[in-house]
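Hello again, I could really use a second opinion on something today. I've been staring at a protein lately and its backbone has me curious. Can you walk me through what the tokens say about the fold? Take your time with it, there's no hurry, and the full record follows here:
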Amino acid sequence: MIFIDVNTRQGHKRLPYRIYMYGAHILLYDEFLRRNGFSVKSSYKYERIKKYPQHFYKNVYGQWYINEYYADELKKKPKQRMSANEIKPLPRVEQINMNL
């Protein structure tokens, strides 16, 4: 398992880059953006979260995780991408405590 050092509101934490939850992998969103050449400070980062909340989870430390299926579509060239509404979403559940 790959761990990423992250500064959170509660201090410095080591969070897993990939977690298997609810039948799918979820990835640490900021780290996914960095590794794939996207801007972490861009307004698109939060626009995606607001527009497609079914593909994102937030942990208790304030870090966002992205659905692996949606992440794969973001890596494709824009003309090859599926509509975000066609991608299999993660099930919506109450906020969970991911104390790692």
Notes: The chain has one domain: 3-86. Helices lie at 29-35, 43-51, 68-75. The CA atoms of residues 76 and 82 lie 9 Å apart.
